[in-house]
Amino acid sequence: MLHVNSSRSISDPSDPDAQLTANNGEYLVNISLGTPPFPIVAIADTGSDIIWTQCKPCTKRLFDPKSSSSYRTVSCSSNACNSLQSEGSSCSSDGSVCEYQVSYGDQSHTQGDVAAETLTLESKTGNPVALPKTVIGCGHDNAGTFSPKGSGIVGLGGGPASLVSQLGSSIGGKFSYCMVPYAAAKPTSTMNFGTNAVVSGNGVLSTPLISDPSQPTFYFLQLEAVSVGSKKIAFQGSSIGGSGNIIIDSGTTLTLVPTDFFSQLSDAVETQVTGGTKTSDPEGFFSLCYVPDSSLKLPPVTAHFKGADVVLTSDNIFIQVNDKVVCLAFYANDQLSIYGNVAQQNFLIGYDLPKQTLSFKPTDCTNT
User: Fold this and answer.
1) Catalytic amino acids?
2) Are 304 and 293 in contact (CB under 8 A)?
3) 3-class SS at 79?
């Protein structure tokens, strides 16, 4: 943990939360930075750590550090800078300011200054929750596949720079989210931190969260198999992560699996689909696609995590490419296996870091 923000009790009813919005393959979270608070919309990403936003002198509607009375750059000798070594921290040319540089799996990148700033979240009471001296990145060189609706990333991973780690004991190591399907008429839901993030009640399934000290950012799970109808396909996944073989990542759209497993899964789905018309992806990216008419019937699909058999719906299995095409929302990748956000839609997903558990609860996320 980089700092302690607050002495609030974890049972305080004003535990923080934030609006989460579905947006074309990603989920955007609303926060504010600075004094006075400046609203920021950024990608919610459990697969990375640093919190960053685009800053002036970039040319979009961006956060201006000069307009905030609480903004402070971080020195190269500070603990915060040292803690960001995994984020490529370095010193400015004159040696006075800590800088960061991060690249993501989709080849996007950001670099800029490391700073301490007040980050503000909302709460159920309607009163904002201010978190002073939160360590952030103030990006000056940002490029890649970032949405024009967003202006940065809120890292929610397990490393010391993430929002979850910086909130620390004030949230008891708990957070949750519920992702609405991309095509939902109401695209928003709520991300909760602290006591409001506890997932309980009928239908809750829990599986171990597995940490890998060599990759503290990632939340590893153990996926044992996936069933398509009566066919159960054993899953090996990534060889890294100790007993964990797949990470859960809110910032990746598709579920990425090894090529051999993908071939078996795709064949099983294609064999058991009834009705509908098979078609091609207009962009040539996906390999198994259908015309989404009323005759299309999909087989039941279950993800068998250790201790948790998660039954997926059609929204978790297929992604809508356009009005006339849906495609299998899995993709072959022989590096890191990732349980992406399409597979997580319409589940209330809770992380309990002290107990090292991840909970799934089937939920209509438009009602959260």
Assistant:
1) 45, 249
2) no
3) helix
